[in-house]
Amino acid sequence: MIFYFTGSGNSEYVANALSVALGDRCVFIPDVLEADVTYELADGERLGFVFPVYAWGVPELVAKFIANLSVKGAEYVYFVCTCGDDTGKTKEQMLDIARSRNWNVALGYAVQMPNTYVCLPGFDVDAPEVEKQKLSNAKVRMDEVILHLKNYDRGCFDTLPGAMAWFKSAVARPFFNKYLITAKPFHSQDNCIHCGRCEKECPMGNIKLSAVSSRPEWGERCVGCLRCYHLCPTNSIQYGTFTKGKGQYCYKKQ
What we know:
By secondary structure, this protein is of the alpha/beta class. The chain folds into 2 domains: 2-178, 3-Layer(aba) Sandwich (Rossmann fold); 181-239, Alpha-Beta Plaits, CATH 3.30.70. 32% of the residues lie in helices and 19% in strands. It has helices at residues 10-22, 60-68, 90-100, 128-150, 165-180, 197-201, 227-231, and strands spanning 2-4, 26-28, 38-40, 47-52, 70-72, 77-83, 105-112, 156-158, 186-188, 207-209, 216-218, 237-239. Strands 2-1-4-6-7-8 form a 6-stranded parallel β-sheet, with helices on both faces. The longest helix is centred in the middle third of the chain and has 23 residues, at 128-150. The protein is globular.
């Protein structure tokens, strides 16, 4: 069974590739957040978690979901995370979460995918040639991950921590989570066409079109996935002034 979260579609690509190759069930985490269910794994069924790295760590939504997940038969546990560049101490965070559940993580991989974070100066989507190369490399990377999982290999970890991993995850990450995971700066510009795509696509159901202006309004459940920004057909949705002139990206099947 594979539980996954995605905003831009990068992690959905990974989760679906694993599901097809391994024949394992695939569940979108927001769809089951409110479900009072105990999942029972079949003999030999793997338990996998797929998610994007946010601020050099596990998204808080995913961490809380795993901590509260009711599951039986978790004998082989793994995670695959997606990142634009590196992951900091994401591996260590996942191992800590797993230990709190008395799980031994067998495998942990990072798959580098096109950048999606645009909400600070100096952060933007990748140039088209870089995006294309990352997607090509990701296919090769996924073949490696899938082979290990088919063999039920253990002790396989390659999570691309990058330089200054401790600083990024221990110092920068808390700042990001406290001050930058908020919907308050989101707004739409005058070129909004009131199509409602942002409302429909928000994985957290956090966007509603105003009854007065027919433009999006954001609630309190934002997790910072930026799906609304990247999918807006007119690039009307902006995050304060930080996203002005920046690009958009969502995974498309190659």
